[in-house]
Amino acid sequence: MKQKLFRMTTVASVCLAGALLSACGGDSSSTGSGLYSGKTTQAAVSDVSVIALLAGITDILPSCNSTVGDLTSTASAVKTVRQVLSAITQKTVGKSVASPDKSIIPPSPPSPQTGTCGGTLTFPTYSHSSGTTTISIKWDNYCITNTRGNQVTYNGTLNAVDAGTPGAFGPVTTKLSANIPRLSIVEKTPPVPGPVVVVSNKTIALSGFVYVPTPGEIATTSPLYLPGTTTITSFEAKDYKGDKQYKLGNMNIVTTMLTGGEIQITMTGRVYEGSTGYTVMTTVTPLLMDDSQNFISGEMLFTGSASTYATCTALNEPGQDFTVSVNGTPLSGQMSCYAPYL
After folding, report:
1. Phi then psi for 84, rounded to 5 degrees?
2. Confidence check: pLDDT of 285 > 90
3. pLDDT tens track for 182-233
4. Is the per-residue pLDDT at 164 higher than 90?
5. Were 167 and a residue from 39, 97, 172, 328 both cysteine, which residue would form a disulfide, CB within 3.0 to 4.6 Å?
6. 66 pLDDT band (50/70/90 cuts)?
C-alpha cells in the first residue's frame, strides 16, 4: 500500500480552489500548530481573490493546476511528501475481510533510509501490540533529488497510530490517526554548476487526522481512504519564499463505494488564506468519480462574507477538470485535479 497521509489532507480540499480561500475562522475547535498566522475573519469572495489563490494552488493541492485567469500553477516541493511517506508501507491493494493483511500500517517497520543527496529517514518509534501499531517517522536533513535535478531536503516528524484488533490473518484496522507537528521542505538547485538557489521553502503541519474505515467494507488508500470517514482538525501550509499561507480547519470527508464501482465524496470544513480570511466549504452535490477514478459530477460551494460565494463544478464528462464561478459568473479557464495522485 502506498501510504499517503499527506495526500489525504489534499483530498480534503480537492475543490477548495473554487472558493478560494481564507484564514482561520476564530473557532477554538479549529486551532492547529500555530504555523498559520493569517487573517481570522470571513473573506469576501471575488474574482480577484480566486485568481490570486489559484496561482498558488499547488501549495495545498500538489496534484492540481489551474488555467483560470490565464495563470498556470506548477507542482511544488510539497508534492514529494507522499513519495517519502510511501516508505511506511509496501502494499498496493485494498484490504477485505478475506485478505490476509488488513492493517493500514504493517506491524513490522521498514528499514531506515539514507537520502540520495544526504540525511536520513528513520523510525524512532515502531511498536505493535494486540492489533495496534504505533509509529513515529523522523526526517533529519533527508535529501532527495527530484525530477528537475534539484535537491529537496526534509526536516520534521510524523506520528501515527493504526488502531486495530487481532484477526485470524493479521491485524484489522479500526482507526488510523496521525499528526505532523512540523515538516519543513526546502528545494534548492544542485551545488554545481553555478551558485545554489532556493527554489522553494515551505513548512506544513497536520493535527487531528483520523480515518475510520466503514465496517465490513474494503478499506484502501489508493487513490483515497475508501470507504469511510476522515476528519482533520487542522492542516497548515506556509510558503516562506512566496510569503503565502493556507489552512484547512475542521474538515469532514465521507467516501462511499456505490454499486457499479463509483466513488462518492462529500466534504465540509473551513478553508483559510492568509491575506483574505476564511470561506465555509460545503458539498452542494456529492463529488462522483467513475471506476477509472475520473471526476464526472459534483459541486462544491464556498461561502464568504456579505453573501459572496464561489463554486467548483466537475464537468459533466469523464475527466479531471472543474469549472470555477464567482457569485454566479463563470471564470475563464479550468482547474484540474488528478484524483489518483492527490
Report:
1. -70, -40
2. yes
3. 999 899 999 888 899 998 898 888 899 888 888 876 555 554 556 888 888 9
4. no
5. 172
6. low
According to the model, what pLDDT value does residue 153 have? 92
Residues β-bridged to residue 37: none
What secondary structure letter does DSSP report for 336? E
Q: Which run of H or E residues covers position 244? A: strand 244-257
**Dihedral of CA 38/83/56/16: which sign?**
negative
Radius of gyration in angstroms for the set of CA atoms belonging to the chain, rounded to a whole number: 20
Q: What angle do CA 26, 29, 32 make, to 5 degrees?
A: 80
Quote the pLDDT of residue 140: 97
Of 173, 34, 196, the residue nearest 101 (C-alpha):
173
Beta-carbon contacts of residue 303 (< 8 Å; ≥ 6 apart): 45, 279, 280, 282, 309
Of 19, 3, 8, whose CA–CA distance to 206 is shortest?
A: 8
- Amino acid at position 45, single letter: V
Nearest-angstrom CA–CA distance, 88 and 100? 19
Grid cell, residue 267, equals 466534504
First to last CA, the chain: 15
Q: Poorest-confidence range of 17-26, 237-246, 247-256?
A: 17-26
Largest separation between any pair of C-alpha atoms in the chain: 59
DSSP 8-class letter at 259: T
Q: Quick one: which of 107, 217, 197 has its CA closest to 150?
A: 197
Residue environment code for 221-245, b if the CB has 16+ CB neighbours within 10 A, otherwise e:
bbbbbbbbbbbbbbbbbbbeeeebb
Distance CA 21, CA 37 (A): 14
For the entire predicted model, the pTM comes to 0.80
Task: Report whether 307 contacts 297 (CB < 8 A).
Answer: no
What pLDDT is recorded for position 143? 92
